[in-house]
DNA sequence: TTGTACGCGTTATCAT
DNA sequence: ATGATAACGCGTACAA
């Protein structure tokens, strides 16, 4: 089923069919409808590959995330997709699962497909890969990108301020023994949230005790990290989690060990995913506006986007503290 | 950056470069490495569009789901992707959000891309669209497909038995006033789980009271449905949810209204998503083996798959009841 | 073993 | 307004 078939059936040339399909201006209404009829009769659909090959342009955006199971990424995906849809663009996702090899191969695939642009939200990307991407000529936008020489547009969250708010809030509640539950990540960059946690906690006076435990980015990971934490004998009065997704498992394990939340241990998440207000107790967390991130990425990537500015804009998002039920005054 | 550039740099013809890239047998090691060097020097990546256009085949599978936010679908996606990866295939997802227009356009896109195959898990698909898909010639596999004349491979869950197990279990616990919380769905087919619930409950002796409420497929939907349910004055002692995702919101709303789960109201989910054992209380649910579904779909779609059988296999999955903490004896 | 040349299905540039 | 036809970048018979 090709253009030729349609052309033959409509008694016109392929050029005309192509014009109709791309609603070019000059086509007589009569022929136009003849062509359209042939198209539906034959249930014809243009070959996308031939199309982008001949036309040169693609209307597909790529999104690269670390872990699509985490609702945080899913939300960004949705926002991006919605924004893209209004611009007649599609978006394809690839989740690396924090596996560097998957990251590399996903990038290959996206480059091979000559996408219209690519949005990257993978904390484990190194400067090398990022640079390669940028130099490949594809429009690229990063969220939390590593520092690059030729900076591409970047959207950054001010995790330092966010973490500061979180720790200060807990200190105000009287917490002096804190734990951080993070997730494994390949070295680049050392997880910003964790780094800032350490920095801030280390500076606090009077001094705070703290401990760090890491595991997979999942509820199960949160549970395992908490189990290890408690098994070590350390008794935190508050656990700061790298994100809500893991916090769900942290709370679960605490409960399973007979610890009340927040009666015995306070727990904070990060991201403010939808689920965080459905757990019991509801999670205290820091909000990161995923929708805005997704929309902004689309703006940055697609020239036809309403919010598109040619120059590489740097955008900074400051996480807001959302106090709910999982935190309370420290048990004395 | 094209084959030509590489060929020129390596001092060979494009045909030879192509051979190297597709590791064809007869290429002298010396020239092979010359070509490979040129490729890396130029950071060359074959144009996927030209490739599938010329070669005719595509190594990309499509997955069509109703709501990728629901972990149920996400799990299938992952299983499918993992299986596909071992066969050097990619998979692209499209989530319709239960919007028929999105479904149609996603199908268009996938057909346009001449994918190697397409897996469909959208309850809202009608026989018309399904038929169109099958007749388009693309290898297709359905999960819970509408009945078709020319049956494509289909994977079905025996919801009737599953729902029967669920209702019988609740009856055994003394529940006589049941509610069903389902999700909106375009007509085709009337949600099987709901239909079976009604059928089974209506037959039960002594007679059961029941009521149905529907909303979006999300925790928020579950919450809203429950709110409406209670506002109506109906006092179920047990709520059967169409899936775990909504059940999360159902439990939340119950708790918010001061009702204990399962003390005052028992709640059952469906699917046995990972989250269902992280909520408090843990959800009693019916297990559906998502991983198996994803793997099987890959087997059915890809000829090179180990489990591939030429003939359209019909597979039936029977949901297993998993009893956890959200159900208990009916309050007298 | 390697090169030449045609075809894949479409868009776009000329003519007409 | 419409029709030829040359790209687009690659795979692959067919030759050499």
Largest interface: A-B, 41 and 41 residues
- Using the coordinates above, name the CATH class of the largest domain in chain A: Alpha Beta
Total DSSP E strands of chain A: 12
Task: Report, as a whole number of angstroms, the end-to-end distance of chain A.
Answer: 76 Å
Mean pLDDT of chain A: 92
- Shape label of chain A: elongated
- Structural class by secondary-structure content of chain A: alpha/beta
Poorly predicted parts of chain A: none
CATH homologous superfamily identity of the largest domain in chain A:
Response regulator
Number of continuous helical runs of chain A: 12
| Helical amount of chain A | 40-55%
Question: Which helices and strands, and how do they pair?
Answer:
Two copies of one chain form a homodimer.
Chain A: H1 3-10, H2 14-21, H3 29-42, H4 48-55, E1 60-65, H5 71-86, E2 90-95, H6 100-112, E3 117-121, H7 127-135, E4 140-143, E5 154-157, H8 159-172, E6 177-183, H9 192-203, E7 209-215, H10 219-231, E8 238-241, H11 244-256, E9 266-268, E10 285-287, H12 290-301, E11 314-317, E12 320-322
Parallel strand pairs in A: 1-2, 1-3, 3-4, 4-5, 5-11, 6-7, 6-8, 8-9
Antiparallel strand pairs in A: 10-12
Helix pairs in contact in A: 1-2, 1-3, 5-12, 8-9, 10-11
The structure holds a DNA duplex (16 and 16 nucleotides).
């Amino acid at each position: 089923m090709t253009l030729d078939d349609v052309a033959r059936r409509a008694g016109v040339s392929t050029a005309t069919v192509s014009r109709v399909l791309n609603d070019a201006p000059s086509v007589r209404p009569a022929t136009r409808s003849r062509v359209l009829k042939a198209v539906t009769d034959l249930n014809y659909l243009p070959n996308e590959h031939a199309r982008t090959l001949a036309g040169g342009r693609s209307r597909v955006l790529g999104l690269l995330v670390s872990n699509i199971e985490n609702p945080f990424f899913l939300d960004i995906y949705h926002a991006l997709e919605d924004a893209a849809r209004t611009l007649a663009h599609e978006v394809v996702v690839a989740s690396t699962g924090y596996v560097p090899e998957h990251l590399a191969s996903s990038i290959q695939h996206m480059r091979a497909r000559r996408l219209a642009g690519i949005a990257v939200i993978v904390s484990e990307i190194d400067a090398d890969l990022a640079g390669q991407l940028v130099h490949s000529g594809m429009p690229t936008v990063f969220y939390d990108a590593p520092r690059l020489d030729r900076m591409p547009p970047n959207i950054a969250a001010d995790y330092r301020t966010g973490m500061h708010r979180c720790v200060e809030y807990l200190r105000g509640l009287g917490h002096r023994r804190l734990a951080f539950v993070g997730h494994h990540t390949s070295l680049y960059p050392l997880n910003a949230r964790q780094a800032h946690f350490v920095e801030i906690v280390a500076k606090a006076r009077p001094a705070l005790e703290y401990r760090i435990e890491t595991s997979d980015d999942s509820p199960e990971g949160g549970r395992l990290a908490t189990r290890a934490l408690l098994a070590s004998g350390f008794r935190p009065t508050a656990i700061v989690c790298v994100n809500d997704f893991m916090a769900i498992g942290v709370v679960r394990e605490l409960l399973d060990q007979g610890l009340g939340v927040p009666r015995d241990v306070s727990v904070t998440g990060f991201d403010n995913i939808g689920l965080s207000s459905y757990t019991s107790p509801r999670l205290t967390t820091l909000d990161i506006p995923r929708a805005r991130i997704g929309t902004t990425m689309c703006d940055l990537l697609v020239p036809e986007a309403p919010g598109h500015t040619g120059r590489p804009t740097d955008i900074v998002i400051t996480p807001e503290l959302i106090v709910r039920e999982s935190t309370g005054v420290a048990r004395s």
